[in-house]
């Protein structure tokens, strides 16, 4: 039998257990306020990976549940192929009770996180399971599952740990969902939350207003400057989305925090935005004020480089071998950890997971047939390395 025929036969024989694992993951809630749920999902994945013969370890991080790392075939001097995804979802506790996993008459699975991205976790696992069963794994494989991607690792050091775990990898495959069939993500915007904290001088607005230095007024000047630097057609966004400061109308505000969301199509634009933010922070319009800038939560853009292009060509070959039709590469605006991999020069593909729509909403759904097709595609790609 041809390799792709063997893959199809394996997946056909394991459809029910793939669907059951998907259901189990979705119904095990792992929202942003549910660390125990994240750990419960992680334990399910640990069991699957250990049963596959992988060496499994938990990598401690601060501020979030430990990362799940699993390796097999590790060889000195040879980079691993990374299969990555996130365990957490955006949904509040109890959502799986009101919106349980089910498959509708049109062949779509529903439930919180069914698309983003518990379906992709199943795809990554069974792609390797199929190759293992057929003795077709020829290169080191490393799973890296993170626990706080949906909050952009804002409260942990996961980004630094993730960079360390993936440095030197041969390729990075991220199993985030993709919106339409026969697509993968070749590039993504970068960005995330930044903040500027302005320090002024508080004073009584009635008895000594001349002694005050308004932090809110200074922040307003910064907002006007930053918003003037937007260039949406080029893919450059600086959104001053929230501001907080002061204690009341009768006090000149001594402190103010400006919360900003940024998006950039490329890392070149990222540098532009960072320079704009630094300029806004350093330059003061209101005398005797100062400011601090926090850029620590930014995710790099997933730029398409030569390594990514070559990896996409290999994916197209895999799709042809499996008779899955031509694969289209797209750019999307959402952030993902694929940007971290691309920033390290690792050939990267994202959107390798299931196909569907409605991510982060009660209408989230994923096409069940894509669970098997994308698993076949990922397995064929791994076999071509």
Automatic annotation (TrEMBL):
Keywords: Hydrolase, Metal-binding. It comes from the Bacteria. InterPro entries: Bact_exopeptidase_dim_dom, Pept_M20_glutamate_carboxypep, Peptidase_M20, Peptidase_M20_dimer, Peptidase_M20A. GO terms for molecular function: hydrolase activity; metal ion binding. The active site is at residues 88, 149. Residues 190-281 form the Peptidase M20 dimerisation domain. This is M20/M25/M40 family metallo-hydrolase.
């Amino acid at each position: 039998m041809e390799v792709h025929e063997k893959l199809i036969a394996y997946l056909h024989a394991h459809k029910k257990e793939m669907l059951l694992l998907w259901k189990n993951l979705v119904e095990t809630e792992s929202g942003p306020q549910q660390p125990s749920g994240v750990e419960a999902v992680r334990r399910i994945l640990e069991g699957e990976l250990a049963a596959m013969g992988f060496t499994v370890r938990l990598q401690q991080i601060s501020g979030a549940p430990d990362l799940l790392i699993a390796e097999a075939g590790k060889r000195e001097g040879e980079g691993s192929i990374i299969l990555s995804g996130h365990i957490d979802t955006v949904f509040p506790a109890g959502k799986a009770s009101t919106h349980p996993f089910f498959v509708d008459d049109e062949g779509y699975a529903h439930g919180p996180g069914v698309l983003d991205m518990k379906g992709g976790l199943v795809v990554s696992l069974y792609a390797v399971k199929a190759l293992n069963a057929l003795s077709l794994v020829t290169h080191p494989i490393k799973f890296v599952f993170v626990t706080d991607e949906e909050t952009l690792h804002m409260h942990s050091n996961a980004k630094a740990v993730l960079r360390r775990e993936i440095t030197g990898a041969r390729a990075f495959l991220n199993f985030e969902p993709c919106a339409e069939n026969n697509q993968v993500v070749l590039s993504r915007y970068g960005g995330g939350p930044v903040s500027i904290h302005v320090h002024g001088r508080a004073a009584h607005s009635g008895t000594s207003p001349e002694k005050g230095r308004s932090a809110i007024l200074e922040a307003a000047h910064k907002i006007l400057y930053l918003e003037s630097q937007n260039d949406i057609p080029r893919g450059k966004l600086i959104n001053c989305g929230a501001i907080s400061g002061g204690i009341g109308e009768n006090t000149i505000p001594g402190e103010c925090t400006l919360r900003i969301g940024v998006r950039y199509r490329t890392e070149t634009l990222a540098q532009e935005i960072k320079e704009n933010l630094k300029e806004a922070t350093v330059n003061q319009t209101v005398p005797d004020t100062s400011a601090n800038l926090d850029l620590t939560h930014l995710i790099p853009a997933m730029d398409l480089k030569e390594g990514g292009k070559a990896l996409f060509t290999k994916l197209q070959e895999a799709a042809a071998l499996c008779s899955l039709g031509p694969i289209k590469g797209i750019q999307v605006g959402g952030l993902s950890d694929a940007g971290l991999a691309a920033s390290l020069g690792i050939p990267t593909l994202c959107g390798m997971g299931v196909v569907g729509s409605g991510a982060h909403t009660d209408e989230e759904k994923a096409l069940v047939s894509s669970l098997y097709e994308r698993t076949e595609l990922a397995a064929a790609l791994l076999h071509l390395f």
